[in-house]
Design brief:
Layout lengths: L4 H18 L7 H8 L3 H13 L3 E4 L5 E4 L8 H9 L25 H19 L2 H14 L34 H8 L3
Antiparallel strand pairs: 1-2
Helix pairs in contact: 1-2, 1-3, 1-4, 1-6, 2-3, 4-5
Length: about 190
């Protein structure tokens, strides 16, 4: 099993929506999700549509619209999301529970390769089905907090300010160095 880019983007977006819910941000726009993880907006829109159709997220239209989780993070297993986006977890068809395909070996019941791949499928499924989105959000926010970093989306979405001419000696506004920190941490942190 290899996680596709679509699967990775889906999981990262769900984690960010879980963090947003935890910090009382009711909605996130696709552009915010894309910016937080440096993802292509158009592709992410397609991923979010697939997650919406499956009932993992819901969207709110309008000027102040966006996405939010459609169910509690504790009810969304990582395995369910991976299966939705990338299909069966089994490395070969004859051990798949959701997309079984007979193999061409003469004795499937006594096939050593099948027994090995069944163990692989069971191990992958056990891990991905044991962890919920809430577990991953908790690990992520705990690591950010213990590192002394602010939680993403803890500030309301920025409203474009009216541009005023700069006066001589005026300073540029400070930009936080922690943008995209969830992406940085999740790349280095394994559960």
């Amino acid at each position: 099993m290899k996680l596709s880019k679509r699967g990775e983007y889906a999981l990262r977006s769900l984690i960010n929506l879980g963090i947003a819910a935890k910090v009382q941000r009711p909605l996130l726009r696709v552009t915010e999700l894309a910016k937080a993880e440096d993802l292509p907006v158009k592709f992410l829109e397609q991923v979010m549509q697939q997650l919406r159709e499956a009932g993992f997220v819901e969207s709110v239209r309008g000027k102040h619209g966006g996405y939010r989780l459609a169910q509690p993070a504790a009810k969304i297993t990582i395995g369910a999301v991976v299966r939705l986006i990338d299909g069966p977890l089994a490395p070969i068809g004859c051990v798949s529970q959701t997309a079984y395909e007979p193999c061409n070996c003469p004795d499937e019941a006594h096939c050593g390769l099948r027994m090995l791949m069944l163990d692989v499928r069971n191990a992958i499924a056990a891990i991905l089905d044991r962890y919920t989105l809430a577990d991953v959000v908790e690990v992520t926010t705990r690591k950010l907090t213990t590192s002394g970093l602010p939680l993403p989306f803890s500030q309301p979405a920025a409203v474009p300010a009216v541009r005023r001419p700069r006066t001589a000696g005026a300073r540029k506004p400070f930009t936080s160095p922690t943008e995209g920190v969830v992406h940085q941490l999740l790349g280095d942190y394994a559960i």
